């Protein structure tokens, strides 16, 4: 029997409303390794050397490479932070797996078990990460479910966000928020044929199909497959039903979209009326483009949530300093900068105290009770990985 | 004094060596052979080997236990039904991707041929100055980055692309054919590889003796006759060569369907990319799909090369 | 076309003359039609590029509503993070890989044209294959292979990949030149006592130099414009220009598209200038179209 590898990728290209510039290395990282050949060696060589201030190499999203964030960290921790920008959690995994250059990675939560299984990462140093106790209880529960081994947690949630759908209020009337709008052409009184966008990613779109089917077929097992374990544990039959649903939906889609910025641009241009999307995209759209005609809703069936998670490499020369840096990412000041960059709330509610009122409204605190509607993204159970991957390929075929 | 001496002897040794047939052959053929073995044959052999292995779901290491599962899954277990009368075939995603790629590439090739032939014909008959201007206008897009040309169509297509905006401004549309999808991909590929076809056709038309054609016309041959009996046979190598230059890269296209397909056009390039580095990363299934595609292209080329020699494909 | 119904002709000779005139008219129309169609094809080639160039001077990357002209898209280029390093990376990769490809390709061309050896046909076929294998497959294959032999996706891996990719272009152009090269010249030089190196320097190289230059140029351009192979082997620290541009396309915000339009226009401009110079200097057409054999010595 062939073991098909692999988790689905994470919220990848999309999480956190990553800034443009796909793999653009931050200015700092670039200066560190100007010549392309030199970059290879740079990260490793600069790790220690020089005594004095240690250098911590982080591979993470572009938001972390922005000057206000880096400066805020360096003000509070006696370390030089070198950021290598990445647009995908899988890439972070591959990088850390292939070289010992990085002290910290910040993949999405669903990738952390992969780091853990490959024995790449250290358990969280709870003494150093003092802010860990402040993060929402819900995230500590998630950590317990998804990447805790022998009582040790292996990652620290940093920021989070959720996926619902956005619609154009000029064309689409008010309605009870539900995934029905994506799958049933008579759910609202607007012709949505060719006006709906889904994500070009199995990890995001398959759960939507599952949540819809859970209600539609009155079969809670679809939902339980998402919530009950550390992986998505669909049966093959369920996967086939999800596949069939998505294949049936395809002709009426405008298309599948693979990046937030494209989503924003095309939504604004009027390419579609309803789009499965992350909340931060919509906030960005409303904030930067004054688009008051966009409404973002959480469907009554529930919404998938991501949280990015900092992990520290086993090969780090300065694990303690690395954990200090991680701690800083969920500290109020640096956490607030990060929240601003990504339009995404911190996992530490106290960060909201550092935000302006208008900011806090958009990405500040949340009533813990609301967490009930959110389900964290997870990787697919290895046992059904093969049919799951095949199903998505067929949806796209 | 020592340095020139050493140079002299080195040079002498080199001259002696190069004069010997065996050494000369080794020096000229060797480096290329090493490159080809290390960077072409070895990777392809490795990929073939991996396509018969599997990937461990935890460590992501290759498990070297021979299996044909990766190939079996390319053709077995599909759900998309194709029916031809009473025959029903259930195609897999891979089969659909191959079919789609070959269909799109065929249409793009035919379009290129039909579009490029008249232009190539005109170019072959232009006087020197006019020719210089036209060839400049043709070569510029030819040398312009492929990516830029594919991107240029991204601006043209889409519900709110240039085409539909212009149509909208005059009160028509939006026209569905100008949205992203298969038609956009075909136009993008046709535009991308048009210059290859054009230049190959031009090269074969350039050698054509137009007085022959005029003579045939004078003798009362119809236009169609002349095209069928004279122009096409004489330019056949160019037609086949140009078609190949359009067809083969179109089959394996990635950028164009990615940019112009809006996620709805899964050609094999995209399918392989997804398996290689995308969400469902799996080196073994990616290798199997790759080798199957290579095999299909080899078969197609083999059929074509019964008619045309690789050498005639010339400089492009 | 059905306008030719003139007066009903009675006499055969008149009829004949009329038909001849009609024939000439159709002939002219067809000729004009052919030229019109050819012109239309040039428009097809150019229209999207012209749109990019136009939009690069527009406030908004949408044609409509038109918000006015500006140069700010070009000013934006300077502060664009990662662009400079991408251009540097692409130039270095293209130059290094073209040098390797040219060296190997010229040597291999000599082997193919000056020696008979077993597997010669196989050698030539494999020398051309890198050009024919779909980029996605060459990229994936080399990625897996490099990772297995311990070479991570990187600058070096990209140079190696592109040097292989460029090889066929050099091989085809240079060996075509060598085939048509009069070998008796070389023999005469040798008979007069010139050693192989001298013969090469004084006789052979001057003749094939333009072909070598053209081969280098082709290999260089192919590397510079390659996206798909680099996607798999360039790695996170090397970001060639095509990767940078692709990122802008897939993350198509208005600002990104504005910058991208400006950069694309500069690329077209650079190529326009380069091509004009090259066409004045050498027989570019000949090398592109493979018709170089009979002229250009």
From TrEMBL, chain A:
It comes from the Archaea. GO terms for molecular function: polyamine binding. It comes from Halorubrum xinjiangense. Its main location: periplasm. SUPFAM superfamilies: Periplasmic binding protein-like II. Transmembrane segments: none annotated. GO terms for cellular component: periplasmic space. It is found in: Periplasm. InterPro entries: SBP, Sperm_putr-bd. Pfam families: SBP_bac_8. Residues 1-24 are annotated as: Disordered. The lineage of its organism: Archaea, Methanobacteriati, Methanobacteriota, Stenosarchaea group, Halobacteria. This is Spermidine/putrescine transport system substrate-binding protein. GO terms for biological process: polyamine transport. Keywords: Periplasm, Signal, Transport.
From TrEMBL, chain B:
The keyword Transport applies. The chain crosses the membrane at residues 33-55, 99-121, 133-151, 163-187, 234-255, 288-308. It is a multi-pass membrane protein. InterPro entries: MetI-like (IPR000515), MetI-like_sf (IPR035906). It comes from the Archaea. It is found in: Cell membrane. PROSITE patterns: ABC_TM1. Residues 98-304 form the ABC transmembrane type-1 domain. Its main location: membrane. Keywords: Cell membrane, Membrane, Transmembrane, Transmembrane helix, Transport. GO terms for biological process: transmembrane transport. The keyword Transcription does not apply. GO terms for cellular component: plasma membrane. SUPFAM superfamilies: MetI-like (SSF161098). PANTHER family: INNER MEMBRANE ABC TRANSPORTER PERMEASE PROTEIN YDCU-RELATED, INNER MEMBRANE ABC TRANSPORTER PERMEASE PROTEIN YDCU-RELATED-RELATED. Belongs to the binding-protein-dependent transport system permease family. CysTW subfamily. This is Spermidine/putrescine transport system permease protein. It comes from Halorubrum xinjiangense. The lineage of its organism: Archaea, Methanobacteriati, Methanobacteriota, Stenosarchaea group, Halobacteria.
Automatic annotation (TrEMBL), chain C:
The chain crosses the membrane at residues 34-58, 91-113, 125-147, 200-221, 259-279. It is a multi-pass membrane protein. SUPFAM superfamilies: MetI-like. Keywords: Cell inner membrane, Cell membrane, Membrane, Transmembrane, Transmembrane helix, Transport. It is found in: Cell inner membrane; Cell membrane. Residues 87-278 form the ABC transmembrane type-1 domain. GO terms for biological process: transmembrane transport. InterPro entries: MetI-like, MetI-like_sf. Pfam families: BPD_transp_1. GO terms for cellular component: plasma membrane. The keyword RNA-binding does not apply. Belongs to the binding-protein-dependent transport system permease family. This is Spermidine/putrescine transport system permease protein.
């Amino acid at each position: 029997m062939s073991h098909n590898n692999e988790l689905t990728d994470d919220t990848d290209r999309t999480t956190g409303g990553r800034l443009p510039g796909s793999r653009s290395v931050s200015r700092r990282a670039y200066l560190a390794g100007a010549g392309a050949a030199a970059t290879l060696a740079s990260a490793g060589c600069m790790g220690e050397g020089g005594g004095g201030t240690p250098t911590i190499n982080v591979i993470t999203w572009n938001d972390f490479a922005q000057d206000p964030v880096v400066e805020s960290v360096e003000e509070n921790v006696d370390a030089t932070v070198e950021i290598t920008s990445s647009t995908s959690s899988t890439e972070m995994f591959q990088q850390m797996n292939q070289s010992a250059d990085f002290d910290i990675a910040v993949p999405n939560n669903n990738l952390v078990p992969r780091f853990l299984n490959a024995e790449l990462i250290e358990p969280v140093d709870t003494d150093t990460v003092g802010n860990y106790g402040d993060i929402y209880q819900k995230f500590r529960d998630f950590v317990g479910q998804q990447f805790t081994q022998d009582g040790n947690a292996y990652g620290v949630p940093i920021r989070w966000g959720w996926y619902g759908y956005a619609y154009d209020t000029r064309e689409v009337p008010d309605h009870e928020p539900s995934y029905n709008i994506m799958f049933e052409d008579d759910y609202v009184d607007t012709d949505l044929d060719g006006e709906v966008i889904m994500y070009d990613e199995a990890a995001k779109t398959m759960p939507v199909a599952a949540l819809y089917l859970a209600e539609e077929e009155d079969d809670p097992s679809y939902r339980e497959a998402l919530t009950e374990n550390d992986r998505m544990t669909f049966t093959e039959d369920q996967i086939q039903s999800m596949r069939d649903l998505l294949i049936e939906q395809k002709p009426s889609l405008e298309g599948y979209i693979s990046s937030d910025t494209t989503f924003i641009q095309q939504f604004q241009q009027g390419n579609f009326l309803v789009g499965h999307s992350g909340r931060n995209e919509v906030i960005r759209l409303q904030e930067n483009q004054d688009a008051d005609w966009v409404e973002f809703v959480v469907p009554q069936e529930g919404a998938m949530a991501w949280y990015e998670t900092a992990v520290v490499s086993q090969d780090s020369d300065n694990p303690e300093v690395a954990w200090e840096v991680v701690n800083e990412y969920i500290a109020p000041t640096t956490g607030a900068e990060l929240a601003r960059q990504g339009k995404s709330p911190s996992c530490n509610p106290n960060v909201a105290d550092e935000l302006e009122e208008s900011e806090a409204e958009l990405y500040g605190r949340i009533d813990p009770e609301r967490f009930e509607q959110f389900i964290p993204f997870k990787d697919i159970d290895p046992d059904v990985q093969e049919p799951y991957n095949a199903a998505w390929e067929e949806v796209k075929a | 004094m020592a340095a020139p001496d050493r140079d002299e002897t080195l040079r002498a040794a080199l001259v002696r060596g190069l004069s010997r047939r065996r050494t000369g052959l080794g020096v000229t053929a060797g480096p290329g052979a090493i490159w080809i073995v290390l960077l072409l044959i070895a990777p392809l052999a490795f990929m073939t080997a991996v396509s018969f292995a599997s990937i461990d779901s935890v460590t992501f290491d290759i498990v070297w236990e021979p299996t044909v599962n990766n190939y079996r899954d390319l053709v077995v277990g599909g759900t998309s039904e194709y029916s031809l009368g009473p025959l029903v075939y259930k195609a897999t995603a891979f089969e659909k991707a191959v079919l789609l790629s070959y269909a799109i590439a065929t249409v793009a090739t035919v379009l290129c041929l039909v579009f490029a032939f008249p232009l190539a014909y005109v170019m072959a008959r232009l006087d020197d100055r006019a020719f210089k201007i036209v060839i400049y206008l043709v070569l510029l897009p030819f040398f312009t980055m492929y990516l830029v040309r594919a991107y240029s169509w991204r601006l043209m297509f889409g519900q709110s692309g240039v085409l539909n905006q212009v149509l909208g401004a005059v009160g028509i549309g939006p026209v569905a054919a100008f949205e992203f999808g298969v038609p956009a991909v075909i136009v993008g590929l046709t535009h991308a590889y048009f210059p290859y076809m054009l230049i190959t056709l031009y090269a074969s038309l350039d050698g054509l003796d137009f007085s022959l054609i005029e003579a045939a016309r004078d003798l009362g041959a119809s236009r169609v006759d002349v095209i069928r009996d004279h122009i096409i046979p004489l330019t056949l190598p160019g037609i086949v060569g140009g078609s190949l230059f359009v067809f083969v890269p179109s089959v394996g296209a990635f950028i164009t369907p990615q940019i112009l397909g809006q996620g709805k056009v899964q050609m094999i390039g995209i399918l392989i990319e997804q398996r290689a580095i995308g969400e469902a990363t799996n080196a073994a299934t990616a290798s199997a799909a790759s080798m199957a595609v290579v095999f299909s292209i080899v078969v197609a080329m083999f059929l074509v090369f019964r008619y045309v020699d690789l050498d005639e494909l010339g400089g492009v | 076309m059905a306008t030719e119904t003139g007066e009903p002709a009675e006499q055969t000779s008149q009829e004949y003359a009329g038909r001849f005139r009609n024939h000439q008219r159709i002939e002219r129309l067809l000729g004009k039609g052919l030229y019109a169609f050819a012109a239309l094809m040039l428009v097809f080639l150019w229209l999207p590029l012209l749109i990019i160039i136009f939009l690069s001077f527009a406030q908004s990357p949408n044609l409509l509503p038109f918000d006015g002209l500006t140069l700010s898209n070009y000013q934006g280029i300077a502060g664009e993070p990662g662009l400079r390093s991408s251009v540097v990376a692409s130039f270095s990769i293209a130059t290094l890989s073209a040098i390797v490809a040219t060296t190997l390709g010229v040597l291999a061309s000599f082997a193919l044209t000056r020696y008979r050896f077993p597997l010669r046909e196989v050698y030539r076929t494999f020398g051309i294959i890198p050009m024919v294998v779909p980029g996605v497959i060459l990229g994936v294959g080399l990625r897996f292979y490099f990772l297995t032999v311990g070479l991570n996706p990187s600058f070096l891996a990209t140079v190696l990949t592109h040097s292989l990719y460029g090889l066929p272009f050099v091989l085809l152009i240079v060996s075509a030149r060598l085939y048509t090269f009069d070998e008796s010249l070389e023999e005469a030089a040798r008979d007069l006592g010139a050693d192989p190196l001298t013969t090469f320097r004084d006789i052979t190289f001057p003749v094939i130099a333009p072909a070598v230059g053209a081969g280098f140029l082709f290999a260089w351009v192919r590397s510079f414009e390659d996206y798909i192979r680099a996607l798999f082997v360039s790695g996170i620290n090397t970001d060639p220009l095509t990767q940078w541009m692709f990122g802008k396309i897939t993350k198509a915000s208005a600002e990104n598209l504005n910058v991208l339009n400006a950069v694309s226009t500069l690329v077209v401009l650079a190529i326009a200038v380069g091509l004009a110079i090259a066409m004045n200097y050498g027989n570019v057409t000949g090398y592109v179209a493979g018709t170089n054999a009979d002229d250009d010595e």
